[in-house]
Amino acid sequence: MECSLADETGIDRRIAQRLRSLRAGRGWPLDELARRSTVSRATLSRLENAEVSPTASVLGKLCAAYGLTMSRLMHMVEGEFAPLVRREAQTVWSDPEVGFRRRSISPPAQMLAGEALECTLDAAVTITYDAPPRPGLEHHLVLVEGQLTVTVDGRAHELRPGDCLRYQLFGPSAFATPAETGARYFLFVV
């Protein structure tokens, strides 16, 4: 079962609170975070006040500024650790403007590093990330359906269903689907 509107509003509010506490914990004014993330001060203020929902691109920039993976940020806003999480209880976050949905398969655990995600991109979507949240972050991406081009370190990898791409992030990356089909994939982050 996907998150309801109330669940999405709740997670957006918890993300806003976590973003505000991360910035406060570092003692950064909004201007400093804007400089580090290249996200405008106005947008940051609106995000931290839960006036707008964050996009995948903006969350990626903020996570890079904080040295966190997006999944780690999501785990920070989810509940206590439980070793089993049923599919209907797995957190789903979406960026409807872009056409990106991400299900956190792994039980939330701040003390554990590995994470598993199920991601879906609509057709004709490109998501770019300027920098990894943590240099050297290892990804194992398994394409389940559709077509996906993943660009890492300037090299494009064309994936078909069943293909697995293993890589480490040190610079910009991009995920793109062609005009005729989207993609569903599993991403394992180490």
Automatic annotation (TrEMBL):
Keywords: DNA-binding. The keyword Cell membrane does not apply. Residues 19-73 form the HTH cro/C1-type domain. CDD domains: cupin_XRE_C, HTH_XRE. Pfam families: HTH_31. PANTHER family: BLR1115 PROTEIN (PTHR46797:SF10), HTH-TYPE TRANSCRIPTIONAL REGULATOR (PTHR46797). This is Transcriptional regulator with XRE-family HTH domain. It comes from Aminobacter ciceronei.
